[in-house]
Amino acid sequence: MTNASCTLFPDNPHHCVVIVDIRRAFSSLSLVGCLFVIFIIWLFRKYKYFVQRLILAMTVAAAMDTIAYLMGAIHEEPGPICILQAIWMQYFDWSVLLWVCVIAFNLFMNVIMLKRTESFEKWYHLLCWGVPLVMALIPVKKYGPAGAWCWIKSGETALRFGTWYVPLFVLIFGLFVIYTYIIITIQRQVKRWDGTYNPETQRDKEQLKEDVRPLKAYPLIFLAVSLFPLINRIQNAVTHDKGIFTLWVLHAIASPLQGLLNAGAFALDKETFSRLNVTQIKIAIQSRRAGRKVQEYHSSQDDTVAIVDHGDSETDTDD
Known about the structure:
Helix content: over 70%
Largest sheet: 2 strands, antiparallel
Oligomer: single chain
Distance between the termini: 85 Å
Shape: globular
Number of helices: 11
Strand order of the largest sheet: 1-2
Order of helices and strands: HHHHEEHHHHHHH
Radius of gyration: 25 Å
């Protein structure tokens, strides 16, 4: 990589090589992690459960987001690949953020309001796939090189913060408040239930665990991976894009890391972890194959019945 192509660190182009390599390495790991989650949800038919469908939707968004970080190297000019990367990143960054917010909202409704939100599912999809399209189109004429990848180009600080970092900061603050409140409420609920037993209380306790346990890690993961990118972009704005290598390295690690950390949280969930062994996976694969054979058998039977019925009708006509 030449000095000309490394506008972020023109005096040390090797820094750009390191940042690009780090970005691609962690993006690849995250993509593998997302594919693992999607495969396990499909294999064990977890998509039948609302909570798992929320995780699936967030994982699909995170997988698509990591693809943006795999596109090209550092771009000098806003060419087609650069613009595609910028739009793709803006759209799926927003989609991941909104799915995390939906998960936090679902936790709040389950724990605080004691209500289930399955009836909102179609509205969740409309929100989390529709709003990002609007937010990706607003800066459509301002996309270009933005440091180690393409995004809203350098010099458009107000647009960067208006269409991403200000909403991100507000939502992160809201997530932190809601998450803290949820944790405190859960602890109080558990203490209140300790030492008591009746069937209704036990059922409520188990239901709370079932609804909260698979989801509680994801908002916290998002908060963690958003920290260094936010700090780096604030530094960029203050110093007019005179980057600090360490901050860019941390940004390149953290930005695509969501998928990998989500996969870790998913695998360590008690119910999921209990299935991640050779025996359970073999049984699930056999069940999948058996289900396909049953479907093919029923399809064949239907065709046979249709042929017999057709033959009977012709016989009746001849008579």
